[in-house]
Amino acid sequence: MTLTTAALVGFALGxxxxxxxxxxxxxxxxxxxxxxxxxxxxxSDDDRVQRLLGVPIxxxxxxxxxxxxxxxxxxxxAVDPVAGAAIAGLVLYLTTSLRMLLELTSEVVAATADxxxxxxxxxxxxxxxxxxxxxxxxxxxxxxxxxxxxxxxGLVATLLPFAVLAPFSLPAAAAAAAxIKGVNTLDSMLGYPSKPLGTASARLDDLVMWLPxxxxxxxxxxxxxxxGALVRARAWARTPPSPNSGWPMATLACALPVxxxxxxxxxxxxxxxxxxLEDGERATRLVFRAALVAAVLAIALGVALEAxxxxxxxxxxx
Length: 318
Fold this sequence. Notes:
By secondary structure, the protein is mostly helical. Helix content is 71%, strand content 2%. The protein has one domain (5-309). Keywords: Cell membrane, Cobalamin biosynthesis, Membrane, Transmembrane, Transmembrane helix.
């Protein structure tokens, strides 16, 4: 019995949809977060030394989940190919996050209608900015910005490399997904200007996320049936400090259309109004449809590569 890439993508995303994320105590990403947290300390009073020490952290730490994931798949496959495929699908599930993102976004948007304290508490799970003085519309903006950005970080970045590598090697596909998740985790915990230790991690994440962020913008435009949104987004995509996050955020802003703003940092599609409650609900649905577009793209890539390998193999036999 052969489990195709399409089946594994469906298994992982279906599990996320039905179960959501496992509790932190059982989540390998949370385990990695505790390791990173232990390293997040002032090893030196010299910022330059901190930056230098951050280089081996950025290079080595993501290899830990990568080696573990690839190794588990390799060992399981040696016992039973179906078991190896199942472990690979489980790795993909653990390195993607869609249901939690959409649920938290929806909860924050809904709470802005009549419960700002709940909205401010919930938004802490999505953004790191100070939200105490934000208006309801600005809270909705922050939630939608995070939903667009995390479409890239939490789904596309691991899903598409897995789909490309799975037809060739399931251990490599699992290792790649785990490595990318490790890079993202390092950046989310250390990649701040106030933390010189995380400078290398932030630069590595910028490099890794260059393509996924732009592909995520494409999926948003396709899901909105508005290819022009991607073109219009170019005017603001480079406004945020990150070289990548502006693409999905600006495309979402243009596709709705709404204004998405982080006060004092960036202002996307500024001629539009800040998102209303209805805009927030529409945006959540749009991000979900964009995730489906990404899943279809991943499956199509996997099917095409499997067909190519099958054809090549038949040619060799002939």
